[in-house]
User: Which sequence fits this backbone?
């Protein structure tokens, strides 16, 4: 492994671990229910996942493949609604997107 | 949403990590293929996954390495990209409630990626009790999938998927599909405004500034919307 790549990996890895670990040491058990910080933290999870979904979809929209994207999205929604299974919905979304690409001959 | 408390053993964590295993493996495979296709050797590709363990940052690392960016500039660009992770621990522990053990957080927090955080939050929302063995199981399943996918992709080499464009496209949609499924698993009516604010901020800032800025802006805007009461009184 080249020294510059190892150095890069160690710096980024160390900071990323610190970002993930040190905030878990904060004592949040005494936060008042419904208080400002409590509301902020409660909203962080949904906001983060919504953000990551949106950010991961933006390149697909910019790439000009809206119909396969619609196929994949509808497949996730349909299978999750029917089964409440994250596994099944994820697989269905992938198959739906791939099917859309294949059917439309866009690759 | 189930209110029944479910077991939270190490094995339960491994099982709960199965969707992430399915999502991670093809993406890590694609990373291994891309890394070797851009001139890294197999050990360098595997080393990035082993040490950094942050998918989006690893793909950006490839771009920075191949563009010849200085190591420190590249490193701190990637560090800034991962800054969002500071929010995950407190948000997860807030949901888990008081009186939980955090003795081994220094170890399981290493695996607190976007998807592990989302899956853990989804499990807690459906009645799972927080435990450190559960977090170890969940994190280990995801990490093993990420490492094995990278190794196989690096072994297959650059251009391995060139003859399979539909498969490549389907695998490329696995991550958005996983995020959408995770979002559905924690969705509540009270938090729809938070989600909408986060999504709009992400799109606008991504288009106007950059994808990394869009991710930070989306998370901060969504959490700020919760702070202002748009996510209900205590939506957690």
Assistant:
């Amino acid at each position: 492994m080249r020294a510059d790549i190892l150095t890069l990996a160690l710096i980024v890895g160390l900071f990323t671990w610190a970002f993930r670990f040190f905030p878990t040491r904060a004592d949040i058990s005494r936060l008042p229910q419904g208080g400002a910080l409590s509301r902020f933290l409660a909203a962080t999870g949904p906001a983060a996942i919504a953000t990551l979904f949106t950010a991961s979809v933006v390149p697909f929209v910019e790439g000009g493949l809206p119909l396969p994207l619609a196929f994949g999205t509808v497949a996730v929604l349909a299978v999750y609604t029917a089964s409440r299974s994250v596994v099944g919905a994820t697989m269905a979304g992938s198959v739906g997107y791939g099917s859309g690409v294949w059917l439309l001959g866009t690759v | 949403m189930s209110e029944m408390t479910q077991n939270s053993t190490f094995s339960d964590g491994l099982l709960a990590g199965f969707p992430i295993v399915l999502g991670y493996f093809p993406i890590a495979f694609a990373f291994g293929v891309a890394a070797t296709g851009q001139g890294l050797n197999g050990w360098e590709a595997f080393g990035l996954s082993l040490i950094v363990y942050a998918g989006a940052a690893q793909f950006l690392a490839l771009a920075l390495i191949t563009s010849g960016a200085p190591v420190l500039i590249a490193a701190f660009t990637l560090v800034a990209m991962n800054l969002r992770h500071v929010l995950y621990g407190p948000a997860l522990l807030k949901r888990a409630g008081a009186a939980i053990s955090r003795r081994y957080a220094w170890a399981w927090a290493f695996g607190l990626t976007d998807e592990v955080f989302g899956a853990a939050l989804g499990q807690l929302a459906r009645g799972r009790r927080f435990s450190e063995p559960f977090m170890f199981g969940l994190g280990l399943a995801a990490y093993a999938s990420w490492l094995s996918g990278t190794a196989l992709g690096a072994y297959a080499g650059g251009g391995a998927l060139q003859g399979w464009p539909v498969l490549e496209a389907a695998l490329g949609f696995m991550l958005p599909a996983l995020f959408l499924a995770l979002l559905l698993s924690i969705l509540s009516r009270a938090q729809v405004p938070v989600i909408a604010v986060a999504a709009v901020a992400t799109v606008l800032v991504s288009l106007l500034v950059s994808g990394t800025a869009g991710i930070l802006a989306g998370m901060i805007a969504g959490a700020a919307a919760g702070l202002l009461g748009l996510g209900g009184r205590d939506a957690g």
In short: The mean pLDDT of chain B is 85.
